[in-house]
Amino acid sequence: MKQNSKSAAKDDLARLIARVGSSRDIEAFERIFRAYAPQVRAFMLQRVRDPQLSEELMQETMVTVWRKAAQFDPSRGTPSAWIFTIARNLRIDNYRRSRRPDFDPNDPAFVPEPEPAADHALETRDEETRLHAAMTGLPSEQRDLLKLAFFEDVSHSEIADRLGLPLGTVKSRIRLAFSKLRAALGDRP
Amino acid sequence: MTIRHHVSDELLLDYATGALSEGWRIAVATHLALCPQGRRRLSLMEMAGGVLVREHPPEPLRSNDDEAWISIKKRLGVSEMQPAVLQADDLAVRGGAVVLPEPLRSYVGGDLESVKWRPLGRGAYHMPIELEDESTKVRLLRIPAGKPVPEHGHRGRELTLVLSGSFHDGEALFARGDLEEADETLQHQPVATEGEDCICLAVTDAPLKFRSWLLRAIQPILGI
């Protein structure tokens, strides 16, 4: 079996998060911390500019990783997608005062995934690699738009304003980009 | 339950990046609670966000990791672990009688029985939901079975999420979990399906434009 070191490292991280989730493994958590703290701290600093605040937000991210580790589901996404989603949400919460409501998987009204997640587990191993390749293949106008959305935390209508594009153009670029990415990952609708 | 009308990619992207403000976010999050397909699309977007961050990594800041680790370790003891996601079987045991999913239920203050309906006239009722963020108006609507919502257009965006019963808008049928996105270009007249009142969550960012002069006249009083 051929496997590059990058995806092996990713599997390793998923396993570390699982160990934190199941048995509060502090050594596993320290390895996650060592791997991600510098990146997350820098990610915070890109937007908030204040080193002290970036440090606090990084620590908050890591404590959230510890707290929510049992909720991480490797069949639904990669460790870095999960960690940076937590980081991005905390960064936004910091400058927006209102609440950021989210669905709750433990809610009795929550409709769970119909198929067992285990079916996905093996093939999702290199999903991030495939997604990365598919994103490289996107036209630059679509890639640039995704970068603006994820790096500047702006809505699609703000992106239209910034780029001086009609809203319809921005919408169709977003739809085209994600239909390609979904196709690249196979059966994801 | 199969969702027929899904959240659009552009709205879901705003959700994924966190750019969506509170009012819209309640509607999209509640739709996602009912829609596994939408959550799979969301997780792909989150993965794409992760890929972009790793492709364009900011200069890692490694300076004070040891100090940070000491201060984090102190906080781990006091912060509670959150439980793992429940499996489908566990949920089935608990029954599916809850009509309002989270996060909506917390905003309402309970399930349907705690809704304090206020009459809108013609048998329709609403309950406005108060938010800190005032850029949108959020309300539950109850449209009597077989009756139309007064025909209206929009100055901005409107999201309607069906929670109970169903409505027709032209040819399209919207039932529990379905999300309708409307904007300035749409003049429409949703009609509740016969047999059951239709309960929806409606989010708008500008007052609706009613065709009827009478409704326009009393609109400020109703606050819709």
From TrEMBL, chain A:
Identification of the protein by name: Putative RNA polymerase ECF-type sigma factor
Name all RNA polymerase sigma-70 region domain ranges. 32-100, 134-183
**Belongs to which family?**
Belongs to the sigma-70 factor family. ECF subfamily.
- Which is a GO BP term held by this UniProt record? DNA-templated transcription initiation
Read off the CDD domains from this record: Sigma70_r4
Gene Ontology molecular-function annotations? DNA binding; sigma factor activity
Q: Tell me if Transcription is a UniProt keyword of this record.
A: yes
Q: Which UniProt keywords apply?
A: DNA-binding, Sigma factor, Transcription, Transcription regulation
Database matches in InterPro entries: RNA_pol_sigma-70-like, RNA_pol_sigma-70_dom, RNA_pol_sigma70_r2, RNA_pol_sigma70_r4, RNA_pol_sigma_r2, RNA_pol_sigma_r3/r4-like, WH-like_DNA-bd_sf
TrEMBL record, chain B:
Name the domain of life this protein comes from.
Bacteria
Q: Which Pfam families match?
A: Cupin_7
Q: Which CDD domains match?
A: cupin_ChrR
Which ranges carry the ChrR-like cupin domain? 111-203
Name of protein? Anti sigma factor protein
